């Protein structure tokens, strides 16, 4: 990803666009074929040379063209960039780069999806407590938790695919996008060979709503990763201790002052990166509105937010997959957590049984609630306090809540066979 967004890679893509545009002009009979051969033989200009020229000209595209043409005979160099304006080159190359960058991010997101599916299936029967508002609710399984995250990442993959289609476009339409000095064939020729669509009504530039769509998709994936990381942070708290981030070395140290510390720092980093991605997504929305056919206010912003968003998103998804893949899961602690409230998590099952036995709902609810309060304040087991309310219950088994759990597993298995 870093290489893709380097200055040298950008100039290599610009050369590719210029050569393809000149090939199209040859087919139209407007550029001699030997000129294109000279363009193909020319080296990609060094980023340092472009920067040197730019210090004098204060225009990157013209500086690039000057550096590029230094390696092309004069008779051929005059045909470079024929009929084009700067953003014909910049935006078409950018569409190609964004498509490739999104492909890298998609690969990382698909791996994260697969790792989550694998972890979910491996712990499908690892019973744990479900929590609402941070408070014990009813039993579920750790696999169920992971399944929810897997489907969230899958939805992000679908959003990224749609965003890739949106940004994988180019335009070679000349100043203010009217094709006044260039045949539309050049645009279709170049974009087809780069695997790009064509901006249907160019204003000289590609619409920046396309880039905003991509960064919203990246930020949403980041938020999904944050949700996973936050859950793991909460489950690693000392008083919970149901999972732990694996450390790759015995040399690990969690604190300069407290040798016992084993902290969920990877999860914390993932949450922090999600904040950064949301900021970039908001900034991309600011780039959508340009003056008239175009201005340049977006350009300085894009040099930061586009490569950074894809790079941070890729790093975050890769780190998240590594974290989930190596995560230590403590099933005994999870099972013990269900017993922590001495049976209170079975209150809904007891209520349902009472209703099935013909007890009026308000009476049944109040009786179960009174028994639950006595358990919470006295330390007695829930079964004992229920008996004091005149309610005779059998064994309280957490698997009772999972009788229909298989329907979710069957949905999860549909993700397992998706192409990475």
Automatic annotation (TrEMBL):
It comes from Wenjunlia vitaminophila (Streptomyces vitaminophilus). The keyword NADP does not apply. SMART domains: ADSL_C. It catalyses: (2S)-2-[5-amino-1-(5-phospho-beta-D-ribosyl)imidazole-4-carboxamido]succinate = 5-amino-1-(5-phospho-beta-D-ribosyl)imidazole-4-carboxamide + fumarate; N(6)-(1,2-dicarboxyethyl)-AMP = fumarate + AMP. Belongs to the lyase 1 family. Adenylosuccinate lyase subfamily. Residues 342-413 form the Adenylosuccinate lyase C-terminal domain. This is Adenylosuccinate lyase. GO terms for biological process: 'de novo' AMP biosynthetic process; 'de novo' IMP biosynthetic process. Residues 246-265 are annotated as: Disordered. Transmembrane segments: none annotated. Pathway: Purine metabolism; IMP biosynthesis via de novo pathway; 5-amino-1-(5-phospho-D-ribosyl)imidazole-4-carboxamide from 5-amino-1-(5-phospho-D-ribosyl)imidazole-4-carboxylate: step 2/2; Purine metabolism; AMP biosynthesis via de novo pathway; AMP from IMP: step 2/2. It holds the Pfam family Lyase_1. GO terms for molecular function: (S)-2-(5-amino-1-(5-phospho-D-ribosyl)imidazole-4-carboxamido) succinate lyase (fumarate-forming) activity; N6-(1,2-dicarboxyethyl)AMP AMP-lyase (fumarate-forming) activity. It comes from the Bacteria.
């Amino acid at each position: 990803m870093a290489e893709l967004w380097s200055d040298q890679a950008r100039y290599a893509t610009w050369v590719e666009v210029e050569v393809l545009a000149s090939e199209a002009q040859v087919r139209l009979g407007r550029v001699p074929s030997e000129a294109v051969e000279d363009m193909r033989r020319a080296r990609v200009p060094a980023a340092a040379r472009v920067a040197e020229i730019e210090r004098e000209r204060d225009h990157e595209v013209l500086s690039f063209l000057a550096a590029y043409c230094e390696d092309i005979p004069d008779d051929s160099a005059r045909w470079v960039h024929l009929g084009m304006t700067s953003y014909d080159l910049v935006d078409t190359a950018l569409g190609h780069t964004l498509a490739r960058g999104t492909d890298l991010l998609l690969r990382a997101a698909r791996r994260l999806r697969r790792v989550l599916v694998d972890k979910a299936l491996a712990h499908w029967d690892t019973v744990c407590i479900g929590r609402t508002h941070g408070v014990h609710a009813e039993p579920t399984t750790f696999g169920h938790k992971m399944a929810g995250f897997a489907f969230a990442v899958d939805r992000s993959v679908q959003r990224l695919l749609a965003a890739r289609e949106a940004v994988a476009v180019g335009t070679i339409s000349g100043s203010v996008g009217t094709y006044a000095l260039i045949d539309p064939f050049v645009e279709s020729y170049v974009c087809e060979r780069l695997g790009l669509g064509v901006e249907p009504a160019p204003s000289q530039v590609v619409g920046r709503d396309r880039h905003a769509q991509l960064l919203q998709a990246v930020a949403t994936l980041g938020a999904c990763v944050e949700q996973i990381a936050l859950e793991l942070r909460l489950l690693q708290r000392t008083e919970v201790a149901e999972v732990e981030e694996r450390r790759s070395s015995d040399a690990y140290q969690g604190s300069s002052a407290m040798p016992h510390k084993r902290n969920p720092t990877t999860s914390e980093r993932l949450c922090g990166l999600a904040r950064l991605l949301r900021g970039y997504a908001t900034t991309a929305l600011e780039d959508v509105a340009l003056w008239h056919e175009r201005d340049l206010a977006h350009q300085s912003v894009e040099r930061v937010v586009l490569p950074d968003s894809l790079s941070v998103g890729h790093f975050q998804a890769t780190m998240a997959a590594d974290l989930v893949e190596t995560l230590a899961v403590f099933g005994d602690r999870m099972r013990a957590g269900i017993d922590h409230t001495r049976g209170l998590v079975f209150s809904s099952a007891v209520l349902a049984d009472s209703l099935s036995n013909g007890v009026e709902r308000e009476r049944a609810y109040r009786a179960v609630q009174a028994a639950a309060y006595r358990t919470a304040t006295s330390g007695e087991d829930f079964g004992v306090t229920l008996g004091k309310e005149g309610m005779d219950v059998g064994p309280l088994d957490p698997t009772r809540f999972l009788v229909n759990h298989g329907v979710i597993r069957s949905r999860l298995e549909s993700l397992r066979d998706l192409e990475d």
